[in-house]
Predict the 3D structure of the following.
Amino acid sequence: MASFSKTNEELKLNKLFDVSKFTALVTGGGTGIGLMITQALATNGAKVYITGRREEALKNVVAQYDTGPGKIIARPDAKSAQRISEYLMSNESEHWAETFQTNITAQYFVTAAFLQLLAKGRDVTPGYST
């Protein structure tokens, strides 16, 4: 069996899930799934910015879970729909197009490229669906 390394050092848990060089933004990081994602990232070394509608919930997360080795930083969202709308409308259309290209268009083409493989997996694995 071919291997890209002579050892399995890079597959140890402390290396495999090391995100200490990452910075993340978690929307809804004060509660629920967003909080769990925040905890997992910070516990494994990431710097995590959390946003949400309730500033108090964000502050509680920082107080309770910012224990390292990563860092949790609360950044409350805009307080009103008007401020959010003004922010979104003030962005240049080129910036929006670039963001859309990265976050939507790329996933569309990756999905399209893998459709045949997904269908093959469905056909050879009973009970598996795409």
